[in-house]
């Protein structure tokens, strides 16, 4: 099969074409003929560059990146259902042991042996990828492979974040970085579940960055951002903030607007800088700060139930590119010039 590999860590040019043996599924595994693979900031772009958190966890080079993907099952291993052959499927990336305390609680995202397709085993920047059958969900005929890969990349963690924030109909949710791949999905899914959404992004750089999303748009570069958030939140304040950025100035802008019983859900800190938190308001107002690593199988199932009910990736926030342009996709994400989710389409064998 044809694949893209990294033989050493480096810039986008480190992605090289290669001919590799076709992988063979083992017990409980299936092989997917990959049609589309999402490009992730940390699991792909940062790992390729040799940066934390995942580069040091790659077992050996050369390595095939590529986590969440979609395609068609073309072969099954022992103990896997042969009827899956020919099925259109989407693949989640989380690998778990199924035996530790977290797994027994159906909290695979906290597994003691947590792993990822594309990091801890060979990934889907390739024409074929072998994965555990438990990681596969069939997709409706009306959902394209490109849409499915984008939903797999962001939908499960968005579902997990909204569950952790106890977000439901009538709640007010703030999403910093709402124009990004995950932020746009969180905003759209929150609105689909009946919440009122406020989105924040750098509109001074691109005034139309949040167009098409079901939200109240605020400019993150506004010097009066804190007042703008307070005004948009209304008398009850924010019920939830889903923060995938962890930028100090943004935290200081939204925390005054967090209401009683409000929850801040975090799944990222792009600057890695410490964020000072004043704990006084958290106990006086029964507020919570919750970390969410990624979605577990329950949240994957809930996402695809939402898809069956009509949820789709936000229009205009999924961008397909041929996998021959993978280096360009990495460069676009690395430079911050991309918006929404980039997805590579993989040519047929």
TrEMBL record:
Q: Which SMART domains match?
A: PKS_ER
The UniProt keywords, alphabetically, are: Metal-binding, Oxidoreductase, Zinc
Transmembrane regions: none
EC number(s) per entry: 1.1.1.1
> Which GO MF term does the entry hold, naming one?
metal ion binding
The catalysed reaction is:
a secondary alcohol + NAD(+) = a ketone + NADH + H(+); a primary alcohol + NAD(+) = an aldehyde + NADH + H(+)
Cofactor(s) for this UniProt protein: Zn(2+)
- Enoyl reductase (ER) domain: which residues? 10-344
Q: Which InterPro entries did the record assign? A: ADH-like_C, ADH-like_N, ER, GroES-like_sf, NAD(P)-bd_dom_sf
Q: Name one Pfam family in it.
A: ADH_zinc_N
Translocase among the record's keywords? no
Q: State the top-level EC class.
A: oxidoreductase
Q: Name one GO cellular component term.
A: cytoplasm
Q: Which PANTHER family match?
A: ALCOHOL DEHYDROGENASE 1-RELATED, VACUOLAR PROTEIN SORTING-ASSOCIATED PROTEIN 11
Q: Which family does it belong to?
A: Belongs to the zinc-containing alcohol dehydrogenase family.
Write down what this protein is called: alcohol dehydrogenase
Species of origin: Umezawaea tangerina
């Amino acid at each position: 099969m044809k694949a893209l590999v990294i033989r050493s860590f480096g810039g986008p040019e480190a992605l090289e074409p290669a001919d590799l043996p076709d992988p063979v599924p083992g017990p409980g595994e299936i092989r997917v003929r990959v049609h589309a693979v999402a490009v992730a900031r940390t699991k792909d772009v940062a790992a390729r560059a040799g940066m934390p958190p995942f580069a040091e966890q790659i077992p050996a080079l050369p390595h095939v990146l590529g986590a969440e993907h979609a395609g068609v099952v073309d072969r099954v291993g022992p103990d896997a259902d042969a009827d899956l052959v020919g099925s259109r499927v989407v693949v989640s990336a989380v690998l778990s042991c199924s035996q530790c305390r977290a797994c027994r609680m159906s909290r695979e995202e906290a597994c003691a042996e947590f792993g990822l397709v594309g990091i801890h085993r060979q990934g889907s920047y390739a024409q074929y990828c072998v994965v555990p059958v438990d990681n596969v969900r069939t997709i409706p005929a009306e959902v394209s492979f490109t849409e499915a890969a984008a939903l797999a990349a962001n939908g499960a963690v968005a579902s997990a974040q909204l569950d952790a924030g106890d977000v439901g109909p009538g709640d007010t949710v703030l999403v910093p970085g709402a124009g990004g791949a995950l932020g746009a999905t969180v905003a759209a899914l929150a609105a689909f579940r009946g919440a009122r959404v406020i989105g924040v992004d750098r509109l001074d750089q691109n005034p139309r960055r949040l167009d098409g999303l079901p939200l109240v748009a605020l400019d993150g570069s506004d010097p009066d951002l804190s007042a703008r958030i307070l005004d948009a939140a209304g008398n009850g304040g924010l019920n939830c903030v889903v923060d995938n950025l962890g930028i100090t100035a943004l935290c200081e802008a939204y925390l005054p607007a967090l209401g009683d019983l409000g929850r801040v859900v975090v799944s990222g800190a792009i600057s890695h800088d410490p964020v000072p938190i004043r704990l006084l308001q958290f106990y006086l107002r029964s507020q919570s700060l919750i970390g969410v690593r990624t979605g577990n199988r329950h949240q994957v199932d809930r996402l695809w139930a939402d898809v069956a009910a009509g949820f789709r990736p936000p229009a205009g926030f999924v961008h397909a590119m041929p996998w021959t342009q993978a280096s360009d996709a990495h460069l676009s994400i690395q430079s911050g010039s991309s918006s929404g989710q980039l997805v590579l389409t993989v040519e047929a064998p």
